[in-house]
Amino acid sequence: EAQVTQNPRYLITVTGKKLTVTCSQNMNHEYMSWYRQDPGLGLRQIYYSMNVEVTDKGDVPEGYKVSRKEKRNFPLILESPSPNQTSLYFCASSLSGSGGLYGYTFGSGTRLTVV
Amino acid sequence: QQQVKQSPQSLIVQKGGISIINCAYENTAFDYFPWYQQFPGKGPALLIAIRPDVSEKKEGRFTISFNKSAKQFSLHIMDSQPGDSATYFCAASSLLWETSGSRLTFGEGTQLTVNP
Question: What proportion of chain A, given as a percentage, has pLDDT over 70?
């Protein structure tokens, strides 16, 4: 089944404790991206990657890191999480290009709580 | 700065009624306007999309209306059903930069509830 897999689905952590949210897609998609979803703000892009070793900042990159060493994986790293990073996170991928013409396939989300 | 503004934030409709969600954009370079549907506990999924060369696109009970001069587009759900209850996001992007960093910009989302 073609899908984007995120882990974990739920995570509660403490301020300052480094964490990684994994994202993997099995569709050989070139484009991958991370979004956060907050009430009243919609989906805001954190980082994106056009292909292996090519990453760039989205609209809200502060406090996050990413890497794209393999085409299928695009982990999101929070080096020192803070409470304002409590949110619902989504990984998305697309066949090629970033404008969404081929549709974005989203993972099921990771609900992160930082206390 | 929200480049795509969506309203209303929430919407309650009776079964069989028409649901209407509106979006407005600022960037005249946008030339691709999809709508995504999100059920609880799931990620958003592409529902329907339109390019500005047409003023309307219909797929089943879902219709996008597009007004280029007003920089507005809307989603109409005819004969709304309880199974349509979900969060709907409009979005916009510029395909001119499809391979060089253009990205989907999403609206704030509309939580639709269709009562039986």
Answer: 97
